[in-house]
Structures are given as structure tokens and as C-alpha cells.
């Protein structure tokens, strides 16, 4: 988990790239459960992930790589991400209310989940 300079997707992407990483996206409940203990210790702000809403109307969630490059559509996001995507809530964050993923505005003040 690292800080980002501004509340933008590209700033989050840049923050991970600076440490030789990419934005992380927990792909299953086991990974989320493994992260919980660590996140509880370091949590200061919502944590933006590497998921982004690809299409709010169809509920497609994209896995995005460096430089905002599309990688793939995420599978089984209904069980991983609480709520529904929208045109205004285009990013996915882990919050401390339940340490689960939720949709939110990409402009939300947050730190970044990075992954190797």
C-alpha cells in the first residue's frame, strides 16, 4: 500500500510504477481474507485497486494494467465487490467498514494497492 500524489487513476498507476509494481486487484475471497490482517494494520484511507468499471450498464469490470491499458475483464466480481457499478463510481476501493471492495469515485482520496 503506497500513497499517490493526486486523486486520479493515473496518479495511482504512477505510484505503483515508481516502486516497480502495478496496481493490485484481489482476485478471490481467499486473497481478500489474507490481505485483511495486513490492511487493518496499515489502513489510513480507502485503498484503490486495479479494477475499473468497464461498462456500468452491463456490469463489466476491467482489470487494468500500467498506463491505463486494458488487460482483461474480471470474473465473478459480484461475490468480490459490494454494490453496483455506475458511471460516477468507476473505481474499486477496499474500505475499513468491512475490509471488502466497494465501488467509488476515482477522485476519492485514497492510497493504492500495488502488486508484483
From TrEMBL:
Protein name: Profilin
Domain of life: Eukaryota
SUPFAM superfamilies named among the record's database cross-references: C-type lectin-like
Organism of provenance: Pristionchus fissidentatus
InterPro entries according to UniProt: C-type_lectin-like/link_sf, CTDL_fold
Amino acid at each position: 500500500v503506497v500513497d499517490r500524489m493526486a486523486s486520479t487513476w493515473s496518479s495511482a498507476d504512477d505510484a505503483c510504477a515508481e516502486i516497480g509494481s502495478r496496481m493490485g486487484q484481489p482476485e478471490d475471497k481467499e486473497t481478500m481474507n489474507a490481505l485483511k490482517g495486513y490492511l487493518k494494520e496499515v489502513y489510513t484511507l480507502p485503498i484503490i485497486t486495479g479494477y475499473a468499471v468497464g461498462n456500468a450498464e452491463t456490469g463489466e469490470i476491467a482489470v487494468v494494467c500500467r498506463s491505463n491499458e486494458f488487460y482483461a475483464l474480471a470474473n465473478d466480481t459480484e461475490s468480490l465487490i459490494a454494490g453496483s457499478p455506475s458511471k460516477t463510481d468507476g473505481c474499486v476501493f477496499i474500505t475499513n467498514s468491512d475490509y471488502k471492495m466497494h465501488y467509488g469515485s476515482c477522485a476519492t482520496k485514497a492510497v493504492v494497492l500495488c502488486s508484483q
